User: Which sequence fits this backbone?
């Protein structure tokens, strides 16, 4: 297990509390905050594996994953806000 | 070597942000802890990764800028939605 595996394991352990908040947040907004945390950490895992294991294609995947995760979170937040927003 | 130090610092900040998101008592405290820890931890981890591998490219700079700018925007959007929907906290 190289350095990218160690980083992936550490980031996965770091992603555990946001995942629990996503799992049993009392409200929609807690779940959205947890989803943001999990998205960020998954994108960081992809970027670390791309840079440390020499697979450059995963860098584009990390970029698209971060952009789409941000878009989804903002979309659900604006939808839950309702009104004229 | 300093790249690995920056990565470790970013991991510490990310885990602190996760603990804040899990343990804080109400919604806005959770958003504050998660926002601060996530933005700083992400920027530090990616900067350490770039200085360790020396792979400073357009794509990596774009990824760093994207993760650095979209985290506070997402946090602000969640907080604004919760505030508009009358999610109040007793002082």
Assistant:
């Amino acid at each position: 297990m190289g350095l990218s595996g160690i980083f992936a394991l550490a980031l996965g352990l770091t992603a555990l509390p946001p995942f629990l908040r996503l799992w049993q947040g009392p409200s929609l907004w807690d779940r959205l905050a947890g989803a943001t945390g999990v998205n960020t950490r998954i994108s960081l895992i992809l970027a670390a594996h791309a840079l440390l294991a020499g697979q450059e294609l995963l860098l584009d995947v990390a970029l698209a994953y971060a952009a789409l995760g941000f878009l989804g979170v903002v979309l659900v937040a604006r939808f839950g806000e309702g009104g004229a927003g | 070597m300093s790249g690995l130090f920056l990565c470790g610092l970013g991991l510490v900040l990310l885990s602190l942000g996760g603990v804040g998101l899990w343990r804080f008592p109400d919604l806005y405290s959770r958003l504050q802890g998660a926002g601060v820890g996530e933005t700083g931890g992400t920027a530090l981890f990616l900067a350490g990764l770039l200085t360790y591998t020396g792979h400073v490219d357009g794509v990596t700079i774009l990824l760093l800028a994207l993760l650095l700018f979209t985290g506070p925007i997402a946090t602000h959007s969640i907080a604004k939605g919760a505030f508009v929907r009358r999610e109040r906290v007793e002082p």
Notes: Residues 4 and 19 of chain B are 22 Å apart (CA to CA). The radius of gyration of chain B is 15 Å. Chain B has one domain: 2-84.
